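tool_call predict_complex ligand=manganese (II) ion
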Amino acid sequence: MKMSFRWYGADDPVKLENIRQIPNMKAIVTAVYDVPPGEVWSVESIEKIKNQVEENGLDFDVIESVPVHEDIKLGFDTRDKYIENYKENIRRLGKAGVKVICYNFMPVFDWTRTQLDKVLEDGSTALVYYKEQLEKMDPLTGELSLPGWDASYKKEDLKILFDNYAKLTEEDLWDNLKYFLEGIIPVAEESGVKMAIHPDDPPYPIFGLPRIITCEQNLDRFLKLVDSEYNGLTLCTGSLGCASSNDIPKMVNKYAKQKRIHFMHIRNVKNFADGSFEESAHLSGCGSLDMAAIVKALKDNNYEGYIRPDHGRMIWGETGRAGYGLYDRALGATYINGLWEGINYVSKR
Ligand SMILES: [Mn+2]
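tool_result ok
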């Protein structure tokens, strides 16, 4: 495995100089942030972030994300233009040495939480999703706004998007995903870039919008849409794990064995009986997931892809982008390193 860390570019309060000091840190996960979704990334912007990363002794290996334009998900006639742009991004990133591109196929909203700064018992803050709060939310009327997304869309634009998606079934979304993959995967193969879809977060339909990258059955179906090693997964333990019906160690074992996991997002969640969840510290004892079983499943299958510690809490008074502070993610990386070393040691005895 290769340990990695997400970095939001020069504006990120977390600096590369700090990230490189985390033990065993090898690669940076980042993106070009100066281009709207759907457009081609300039070679200059790609080179600029690549140089910043490499000047700090880290590898420019993983992109998260190249966003997929809504017209592709909706299957509009305009999609071909955006798919061409997407292919060009894959080519350019491949040339720059990128090995893996993470993306998702969630309509309108990516991750959804009801609060980004819930104060936990120990005084840390975390992202949470409470069913009770969610039921009071409506992104269209905006009486209770959606944290993290409230400023991303104008209400009028959101209304049009929702109207468009109202006509789209889950099967339509599958068809549009297949069309997209049939376009891009041959280019990914030529460019030596492995595509790694991120599961839907949370993994079920939300606000009436369809979601399909949600469970083992659907991941099986996804991998068969285009049966290539280059059509793979970002297995996000927290996204899939907030549905307790998903057996994460089993899924990690299965897809690692098939060599279809290229990127692991490792974090823990504390699930409640009503479907609510809180993001917790990475340690197994802090949440509902068995982190040792997850890391063992990777080790058992000689996993050679990337791992990043996913969202952390905000601790020790740190401020910044919710879920993406330095301290708790660094603790997460160190914890994962410890599990990896321990499992490796025991397996050799
Ligand atoms: Mn994730």
